[in-house]
Known about the structure:
The complex is a heterodimer. In chain A, 73% of the residues lie in helices and 1% in strands. By secondary structure, chain A is mainly α. Chain A has one domain (2-213). Chain A is globular and about 55 Å long. The model of chain A has no long low-confidence stretch (mean pLDDT 91). Chain B is α/β, with parallel strands linked by helices. In chain B, strands 6-7-8-3-9-10 form a six-stranded mixed β-sheet, with helices on both faces. Chain B has a four-stranded antiparallel β-sheet with strand order 2-1-4-5, covered by helices on one side. The longest helix of chain B has 21 residues, at 116-136. The mean pLDDT of chain B is 91. The chains are: A mainly alpha, B alpha/beta.
Amino acid sequence: xxxxxVSVLLIAIIYAIFSLGLNLEWGLTxxxxxxxxxxxxxxxxxxxxxxxxxxxxIPSMLVAVALxxxxxxxxxxxxxKLREDYLAIxxxxxxxxxxxxxxxxxxLTRGPLGMHGYSRPLADFVSVDYNYFLLIVxxxxxxxxxxxxxxxVKSPWGRVIKSIREDEDVASSLGKNVFSYKIQSLVxxxxxxxxxxxxxxxxxxxxxxxxxxxxxxxxxxxxxVLGGSGNNRGTILGAxxxxxxxxxxxxxxxxxxxxxxxxxxxxxxxxxxALIILMMFKPEGIxxxxxxxLLEQ
Amino acid sequence: MLSVQGIEKSYGxxxxxxxASLDVEEGKIIGIIGPNGAGKTTLFKIISGFVKxxxxxxxxxxxxxxxxxSHEIARTGLIRTFQLSKALTKMTVLENLMLAPxxxxxxxxxxxxxxxxxxxxQEEESREKxxxxxxxxxxxxxKDEYAGALSGGQKRLLELARAIMAEPKMLLLDEPFSGVNxxxxxxxxxxxxxxxxxxxxxxxxxxxxMPMIMQLSDYIYVLNKGQVIxxxxxxxxxxxxxxxxxxxxxx
Lengths: 297, 251
């Protein structure tokens, strides 16, 4: 049982990190990024590919994080002048392009077969159940990300990105380079997603392109909205709630006359229902601020 | 200080501005009036870099700015406000003001993690300044409220205070008195006059409230159909036949 709880916690924390990146982009800067999973994929695949070619883990991870951030810049440069709805379309397209490249460039990624056999941090030295050790690693990453982001939120930098979320014309009329801040936010958010990708690869021990379908992006959206957009603590809480829900409903199947795939679909429907109910009674999210929703421009 | 020369701007078949020119001397308050659709707000958008003109030149302190971006123009000390006041509603009144100062070290992402002391000092300084400004604008007791909770007139005052935090040399105000009750309107008027006399600030103001703009301005430009049809001292403009025609729909 404890092993099971640890494994649920692991995935919840990895998704919390992943979603913290989105919370920076959407919750704080107001960017509608529907392609966040692309950076999870870039982080995971970069770590694995480099490691399988003999690069040690830490440098592989660093390159993965940097590459995810760089791809964020490449995505942002041509698109961040677009209006929000167009940005949403372009980003979702980008994430599918990334996934299709992973699926088809078999020389690099082994395509649909996926990749495994890569090493995990200190795997040879850890004598206890490896997941306990990994839990400490991901928890450390979460804590570091959380405090770095909180520092940013409360800084003048955070004030500027919040003003862009509110009304970018005001930011620009006060001399802030709106485009540059949007790029910075997207780069940092993507780098964080890249880190979570590395961790996901360690957790799963086997990755394939099907792990990075668009629904993963929307899990992050659910997490951010559930917890309260713009609130880092809410995002972490949202991730934990979502995965408790996922794993809790996994047991339902045994008692019902349905197939596993039906059970999977049912779970998603339940999440949808739960979100609708939450939005009816607490539209600002669990840790969001109600007053903010009531304010009109 | 500001020289606008022959600005033209078309939106499709509509000529919003058709060779508009005007000059603003340092330390003056200049009014722009004109009927609805005359191109006043478009002219402001062009001066402040939010919209690019099709042709024409704009010089601010001798430098061409017609091709600069809006944030670059703001940094040269030319700050605008908006026709529909734009308070950042989900930020507090104090945060609205503290956003405005230029060259904040804490706005650079690396400094946030590497230079906390430097940022703290700067923040303390700008907080002091913001608080004293809020006191003189009678917004002090609202400092921790969300800006969205303010009344229309208070938002106008907040917007002006925020613009002043950016240390402008010149302010472009787009209908600062609209939607403001008479009492707050008088307060606003006093603030503008004392900023000019005490700090030597220059103003270019679009306004529909005739008594107000006549009282406030040193010089007035009248815009109609994208062109300056008259200019002069307030009392001269008041008596100009062409201006009356433009307002009353004469030919």
